[in-house]
Request: fold
Amino acid sequence: MRQELNCEGQACPFPVINTKKAIQAAEEKGIAELLVIVDNDIAKENLKTFANFHDLPIDITEEGENFHVLFTLKEGGALKESDDAVAEGTELASGRPTVVISSEHMGQGDDELGAILIKAFFFSLTQADPLPERILFYNSGVKLCCKGSPVMEDLKTLTKAGVEIWPCGTCIDYYELEDELEIGTLTNMYGIVEALHGAPKLIKI
Amino acid sequence: MTLEPRLVISFHSITDATAFDVTAKDEGFPGRLIPKPREISSACGTAFMTDVELQAEAEQFIADHALETEGVYVIQFRVYD
Reply:
């Protein structure tokens, strides 16, 4: 018997966490195969890591923009006992923080000072070690990802260094900045919540 | 990531730093304001960063425009290519 788990739209580590839960539930029901559907490369690779860790055979096929990862489960329990969530793939491997930018200015009070501070913050962030895993932008913070942004040079540096830039799509729409977006991959509130849930550390500005 | 040198000009006050930045923009002198690096001072402050090759031009620029500065330094920064 085969069971299906649809993880489309989920950012890591949630596809792996949900797969682990589904396999544990499937063991109790005697299910032989679990088909997991994901829509991004990172999730697919993390499922491979998870399968290798637990010695589970998998078969991966591309279906349109999705990946179908078919797990063949073992009789009598498929999963090993694990106290290493990073190796298992159920926790973000980098341990790097997520930064949350909720305004185009830094802090409350004088906006002119806040604009100076946000520029200083992003330059300093390029010098940080470790760099953050990703930066979430919402409300007026999304303006920093658009043309004319005072921190664009630093955002480009951070992108080059592998930092993910995630502006909120609803906020871009609200401020009518669709044609002005210059950097980053639009996300939605599900993506924001999953990123906040999965982050080992959060820095909110 | 590599460490690369940059020329950093420090100031006694944010007013001097802003005046330098405005003059630099008006005159086309390249560079930007950054937080004052820890190597210069542990105190809060703002500095101007430009290419290390422009040290002579920077000192001439300061003199020509009678700009108030605190010091000129060469500092290593993390750069990503």
